[in-house]
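sry for the spam today, last one i promise. C-alpha cells for design, 443 residues
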C-alpha cells in the first residue's frame, strides 16, 4: 500500500512540476529511468511475441516490468531474459489472470491475438489497471460496445490504443489538420489503400508445440486442430481471430480517415457498405469459409462505404498503401513514408498548422511519442490521442467492410442505433458465439 501511494504521489508531483516550469515535464524514458523503483509505474505485459516484445521494450523506459505473460512459454521466457524487458527478474505467467490479480501492477500492456483483446482489456479495467492495447482493439461490432461501456465506467483509468499513426506530426496529423481546416474544400471521396491479405494453404494439421497452450490460445474461438499458420503472427489471415487487412491496416488508415472527415463521434459512421467487389482465397457459403486449412480473409477487394453526408470511403486492396483525400479544391495522399499532392507542394497550410493546432489534435496535450502520451495522461488525466471512443467508430467501418465482403453484398447500417438493418443474415455477424468459459463480462 505504501508503494502504491508513493507512485501516486510521484505522478501528482510530476504534474505540479509540469505546471510550474517553463519547459513542460517530458514523459521521456530518461526522465523515468532516473526515478527510484518505488516511484515508477509497475507494468505487466500480456502477450510478448514479436509485437508484444517491441511494445514491452517501449514501456520499460517508463516503468518497471514486474510480470510477463504468454501462452507460449518460449515467448514469456525470452521476454524475461531480455535486458530491456524482464531483465532476468520479472515473473513469468501463462495465464493473464495471474497478472491482473497482482495489486502491485498499475499498468498492463495487452498485445495478444485480436480475439483476446477486449476480454483481457475489460478485466484489466475491472482490476483497476491502466491499459495499453494493440490495435485492432475489437473483433466484432458487439465488442465495440462492450469495451466502450467499460471505459465509460472506468473513467479514472487511461486506455490507449496502439495506433501510432496518430502521433505522426509530419504526415498523418498534418493531413488531418488540412482536411479539418477545409483547405482541400469539401471532401467528396477518401480512398483507403490497405493491401490484400496473403493467400496460402492447404496447411497441414499437427500437434501443437509442447510450449504452447493451444486451447488457451484459441480462447473464445471454436476448438480446432492446430495449424502452424493459424497461430502467432499468421492469425491475422483467419476471420476466426481477426479481420484480415480490413482490421490489420484498416485499424490504422480507416482510423486516420475517419478522424479527418469528422466521423469519429458516437452515432456517426457509414450508412451503406457495398462489398460486391470482393474476392476470397477459398469458397464461401453464407459468409463462412468452406475450407478450414487455408487462409480465408479477403485478398482482393474494393468496398465502398457511403456516409450520410455524401462522402464515399473506398476501402481497397488495390493501389498504394495509404490514404487519398479528394476535395473540391485539391487532393493529397499520405502514408507512413510521405505526404504528397499540390496542396503540399504549394504549402497551403503554411499559416494553418501551428503548434496550437497540433496540441488541439492531441486533446490539449503537447505533441510527443505515442507511449509518452499514454504515461502523461496517467499522470495528468484526460484522454490519450488514440482513445477507445474514436477508435471503435473507425473499427465499425472496418468490421462492416469485412462483413459486406464476406457476404458479397450491399448492407445497410444505422450508425445511431448501431444495427445492421434489413438483412437477417448480415445482422448475425454483429456478434460471435463464444466457447464456454471464455465469455466477456458486461459492465
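last one done:
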Amino acid at each position: 500500500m505504501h508503494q502504491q501511494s508513493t507512485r501516486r504521489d510521484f505522478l501528482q508531483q510530476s504534474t505540479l512540476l509540469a505546471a510550474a516550469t517553463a519547459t513542460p515535464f517530458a514523459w521521456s524514458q530518461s526522465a523515468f529511468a532516473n526515478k527510484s523503483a518505488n516511484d515508477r509505474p509497475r507494468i505487466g505485459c500480456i502477450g510478448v511475441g514479436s509485437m508484444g516484445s517491441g511494445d514491452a521494450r517501449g514501456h520499460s523506459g517508463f516503468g518497471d516490468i514486474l510480470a510477463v505473460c504468454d501462452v507460449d512459454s518460449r515467448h514469456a521466457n525470452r521476454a524475461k531474459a531480455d535486458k530491456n524487458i524482464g531483465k532476468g527478474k520479472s515473473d513469468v505467467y501463462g495465464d493473464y489472470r495471474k497478472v491482473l490479480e497482482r495489486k502491485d501492477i498499475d499498468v498492463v500492456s495487452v498485445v495478444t491475438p485480436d480475439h483476446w483483446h477486449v476480454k483481457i482489456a475489460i478485466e484489466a479495467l475491472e482490476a483497476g489497471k491502466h491499459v495499453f492495447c494493440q490495435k485492432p482493439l475489437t473483433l466484432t461490432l458487439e465488442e465495440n460496445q462492450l469495451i466502450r461501456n467499460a471505459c465509460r465506467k472506468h473513467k479514472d483509468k487511461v486506455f490507449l490504443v496502439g495506433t501510432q499513426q496518430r502521433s505522426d506530426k509530419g504526415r498523418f496529423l498534418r493531413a488531418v489538420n488540412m482536411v479539418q481546416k477545409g483547405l482541400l474544400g469539401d471532401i467528396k471521396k477518401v480512398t483507403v489503400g490497405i493491401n490484400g491479405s496473403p493467400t496460402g494453404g492447404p496447411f497441414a494439421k499437427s500437434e501443437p508445440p509442447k510450449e504452447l497452450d493451444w486451447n488457451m490460445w484459441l480462447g473464445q474461438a471454436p476448438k480446432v486442430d492446430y495449424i502452424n499458420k493459424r497461430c502467432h503472427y499468421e492469425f491475422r489471415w483467419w476471420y476466426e481471430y481477426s479481420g484480415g487487412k480490413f482490421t490489420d491496416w484498416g485499424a490504422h488508415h480507416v482510423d486516420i480517415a475517419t478522424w479527418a472527415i469528422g466521423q469519429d463521434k458516437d452515432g456517426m459512421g457509414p450508412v451503406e457498405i457495398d462489398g460486391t467487389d470482393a474476392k476470397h482465397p477459398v469458397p464461401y457459403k453464407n459468409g463462412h469459409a468452406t475450407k478450414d486449412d487455408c487462409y480465408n480473409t479477403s485478398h482482393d477487394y474494393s468496398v465502398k462505404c457511403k456516409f450520410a453526408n455524401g462522402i464515399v470511403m473506398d476501402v481497397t486492396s488495390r493501389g498504394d498503401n495509404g490514404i487519398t483525400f479528394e476535395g473540391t479544391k485539391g487532393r493529397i495522399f499520405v502514408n507512413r513514408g510521405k505526404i504528397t499532392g499540390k496542396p503540399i507542394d504549394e504549402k497551403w497550410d503554411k499559416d494553418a498548422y501551428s503548434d496550437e493546432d497540433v496540441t488541439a489534435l492531441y486533446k490539449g496535450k503537447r505533441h510527443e511519442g505515442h507511449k509518452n502520451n499514454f504515461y502523461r495522461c496517467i499522470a495528468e488525466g484526460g484522454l490519450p490521442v488514440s482513445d477507445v471512443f474514436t477508435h471503435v467508430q473507425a473499427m465499425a467501418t472496418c468490421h462492416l467492410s469485412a462483413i459486406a465482403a464476406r457476404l458479397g453484398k450491399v448492407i445497410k447500417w444505422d450508425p445511431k442505433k448501431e444495427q445492421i438493418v434489413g438483412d437477417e443474415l448480415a445482422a448475425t455477424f454483429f456478434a460471435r458465439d463464444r466457447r464456454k468459459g471464455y465469455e466477456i463480462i458486461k459492465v
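Residues 194 and 249 are 5 Å apart (CA to CA). ok im logging off now
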